[in-house]
Amino acid sequence: MDGLLLNTEEFYSVAIQKTLDPYDCKFNWEMKHQMMGRKWLESLELLINHYKLPIGVDQFASICQKYLEALFPDAELLPGAEKLVRHLYKHNIPMCICTGSSKTYFEIKTS
């Protein structure tokens, strides 16, 4: 869903940066690259250790989650997403949604 139908990737960077702001840390591409492909909490632990932050993973995740929940409703379809779904529907091609997002995030993103 994310990155194919919905443009939400940038929201994670925004939320992480807003969570880092009080610590005067800059979330850069190098750090983002190291976090990619990892589970959410594992990637946050890597980030916290990298910046030597004085908070735990759960606290960081909780703060970040508040920013994400505010951003997700503004997610827009990626170019061609609607055309693709309409084409598949028109030709009776079965579809399903696959996501690594939690049920809560899925519901927020698709509301």
Automatic annotation (TrEMBL):
This is Uncharacterized protein. Signal peptide: none annotated. InterPro entries: HAD-like_sf, HAD_2, HAD_sf, PGP-like_dom2. GO terms for molecular function: phosphatase activity. Transmembrane segments: none annotated.
